[in-house]
Amino acid sequence: MGQLRKKIVILGAGFAGIYALKSIYRHLKNWDDFDIIIIDRNNYFIFTPLLHEVATGGVNPGDIVFPVRDIAEKSTEHYEAEVLGIDLNKKLVDTSQGQVPYDYLIVALGAQTNYFSVQGADKYTFGIKNIDEARRLKNHLIHIFDEANLELNPEKRKDILRVVFIGGGASGVELAGEVYEFMREINKEFSRIREDEMEFYLVEADDRLLPVFHKNFSDAALKILKKRGFKVFFSDPCARVSEEGITCVLTSTIKSKTVIWTSGIMPSTIPFIPEQEKQKGRILIQPVLNIKDFPEVFILGDQAAFPDQRFGLLPPTAQVAMEQGNFVGKNLARLITGKPLLPFHYFHKGELVSFSKWKAFAQIGQVRFGGPAAWLVWRFNYLFRMPTFSKKVRLFFDWILYLVSKRDIAEI
């Protein structure tokens, strides 16, 4: 009777999970002697940093979505299921499709939106964490122009077209810039609606925009937004969201049908048996990326609390998730072959943020620059990181069309 093949199970098909899978293929020479299973609620990987361009008609949604089976080798199985819990003692993953045993486990289930217990935020705001949310936002932005076009009262038209962004980090600033340009482009199709009837607000609980960037960039970002007519509130967190708009702690209610939440994320939470030590809701891991007392279990990305001298804990970003995913295959191969595991060292490549066409900031080590050069670096950085060649080509031509023609303003 043949020996049972050992199972490597990856939970999550985000950046950490997909890059971990590719890392296993590179570092584990006999990977095809194992049963490799990747489990995710969707059958695809989303290149999430470009979702804001899907929501604003700059990129075709299909061009940033990758079927897991296109990335995985043929002998790798994909289970479309929800992960419900993990029993570390029994080496079992509980899913919506039943229990899955493992010999080696990589947990990379990402993060979810953090509403900071703000009343009504989960019900009355637009997010941008997945393709469905990006589509919903795009369709809504187009629809409010049709609604405003039929409204004869100018003040009521302003109420319909007023957009409020909650959060002034990189995601909020990028989305604000793209939504501003998108709505101006839609507005060209409606002769009855004046451009000054669109109003834009940004609410930030901190005292400046882009807190991870140099203060000069924060000031420059504020200047750009104000030049575009944005009303920006600092140190005044959102306290409540309703159908009518938002109420902040210090300011009065801002009426709006379009409140866009980009304020924060929190790690996906699933029960572990036994329960694991956490910091800021994230599971505390060893320098080699695994769990103390369970060396066969690795935690990556947004769920992992990895102490770091510069950041305290490594930030929950795609850049960190990719680096850890790229590294984990090496340690998994060493664990399987009985070699000592190596500590993970994170190299921070820098920060990039785009404000829309030809406007961006880049912060790479001690080098800081902005304008068209930074915008091109931002574009080619993401183009380089796309997982497959065919999607690289499609995205490249999406961006060429974005430069020479108008955005897609059809509902999807």
Explain what this protein looks like in three dimensions.
The protein has 412 residues and is α/β, with parallel strands linked by helices. The protein folds into two domains: 7-41 and 81-113 and 266-336, FAD/NAD(P)-binding domain, CATH 3.50.50.60; 121-263 and 351-404, FAD/NAD(P)-binding domain. The chain contains eleven helices and 29 strands. The chain has helices spanning 15-27, 51-54, 68-71, 121-124, 131-150, 154-161, 170-187, 215-227, 318-336, 372-385, 389-404, and strands spanning 7-11, 35-40, 44-46, 65-67, 77-80, 83-87, 92-95, 98-101, 104-107, 111-113, 162-166, 199-204, 231-234, 238-242, 245-248, 254-255, 258-261, 265-267, 272-273, 278-279, 282-284, 290-291, 294-299, 304-305, 307-308, 312-313, 351-356, 359-364, 367-370. The chain has a six-stranded mixed β-sheet, with helices on one face. Strand 15 and strand 16 (254-255) form a beta hairpin. The longest helix is centred in the middle third of the chain and has 20 residues, at 131-150. It is elongated. The model has no long low-confidence stretch (mean pLDDT 94).
In short:
With 412 residues, the protein is of the alpha/beta class. It has helices spanning 15-27, 51-54, 68-71, 121-124, 131-150, 154-161, 170-187, 215-227, 318-336, 372-385, 389-404, and strands spanning 7-11, 35-40, 44-46, 65-67, 77-80, 83-87, 92-95, 98-101, 104-107, 111-113, 162-166, 199-204, 231-234, 238-242, 245-248, 254-255, 258-261, 265-267, 272-273, 278-279, 282-284, 290-291, 294-299, 304-305, 307-308, 312-313, 351-356, 359-364, 367-370.
